[in-house]
Design a protein that fits this description.
317 residues, alpha/beta, Arc Repressor Mutant, subunit A, D-Maltodextrin-Binding Protein, domain 2, 6-stranded mixed β-sheet, elongated, disordered C terminus
Length: 317
């Protein structure tokens, strides 16, 4: 960070921790250096920024004002640094992203490839995890951003973009169930079914629907992996229950067909691009977020089954 921001960096950490000693440990500088900086600015301002208490420091009214202004200043500085990097013609930085298994192929990898082409100084770490693990990685700060299902009830997540994803029946091409583009679960009563297990996000929807319909399906297999269900369908073991997102690549390639489940009891699943509420994205993460946000609507049904729509916003150098 530029030298002109040294005091502000010290001040914000002290204000957050309420202790010069702890701030010194976090920043790797001497406590006396931080104290001198704060005393000098207090003298210049003619007002104390902290109350010196027995158990530590507490912001005064003036300190609260400066704390809020300092946060805005840091955000503005980040935008300035991005603009300077633009002038240099090279973006730098590392971004960690967590996604659910359905996004490990197809559109999202294509977006990352295009971003890397535009910004050769940037590196990306990709983590493919179950839905609950993606949520935890975002909130705990293990990744800069993530894509997961149904995050809206969690205050520690900020939703940057979202779309509805529909569950349905996955079949071989030409199967009778897929001819109309949508069907009801009751139509599968006499058809071998490969069911999703609890590991998959669509499982709860499937369980509720099966119980509501009051039918007993011919479950030939249960699987906790999207690719395994896809492979079993392709082998002719039965039809599968997944989301449109799970099989977008195969439907685009013509190796599978998908019929949306239209039972009234079903609700769409919300797929969301999220960051941690308590953590501001880095400049590099901001670049990736902007690209993902711009193309996110193409992950909805039926756009997800239209080829190469997700990354049309990204122009390769």
């Amino acid at each position: 960070m530029p030298a002109l921001s040294r005091f502000l960096r010290y001040f914000l950490v002290v204000g957050r921790l309420g202790s010069i000693r702890r701030a010194a440990e976090e920043l790797g500088v001497s406590a006396s250096s931080i104290d001198r900086q704060i005393l000098k600015v207090e003298s210049d301002l003619g007002a104390p920024l902290f109350e010196r208490l027995h158990g530590g420091l507490r912001l005064t009214a003036a300190g609260e004002v400066l704390m809020a202004a300092g946060g805005r200043w840091q955000r503005n500085l980040a935008e300035v640094l991005i603009q300077i990097e633009d002038l240099r013609g090279l973006k730098r930085g590392h971004v960690d992203i967590a996604v659910i298994d359905a996004l490990a192929k197809g559109q999202v990898p294509a977006v990352i490839h295009a971003i890397r082409s535009r910004y050769p100084g940037m590196t990306v770490g990709l983590h493919v995890q179950p839905n609950d693990v993606v949520r935890a990685m975002i909130t705990e700060g293990a990744v800069d951003l993530g894509i997961l299902y149904d995050p809206q009830s969690f205050r520690d997540l900020s939703v940057r973009a979202f779309v509805d994803v529909v569950p349905g029946i996955v079949t071989p091409p030409g199967h009778a169930l897929a001819q109309q583009g949508e069907t009801r679960l009751a139509a599968c009563a006499d058809v071998p079914v490969i069911a999703p297990s609890r590991h998959l996000a669509v499982h709860q929807q499937f369980e509720v629907l099966e119980a509501t319909c009051g039918i007993t399906l011919d479950r030939r297999a249960t699987a906790d992996n999207i690719q395994m269900i896809v492979s079993l369908v392709q082998q002719g073991v039965g039809v599968g229950v997944l989301t449109a997102l799970d099989v977008a690549t195969e439907v685009q390639q013509g190796t599978l067909a998908f019929a949306r489940l239209s039972d009234p009891v079903l609700r769409p699943m919300t797929l969301a691009l999220c960051t941690a509420t308590a953590r501001a994205p880095s400049p590099a993460a901001g670049i990736v977020l902007a690209e993902l946000e711009a193309g996110f609507p193409a992950l909805a049904w039926p756009a997800i089954h239209a080829p190469r729509q997700f990354y049309t916003n990204v122009q390769c150098a």
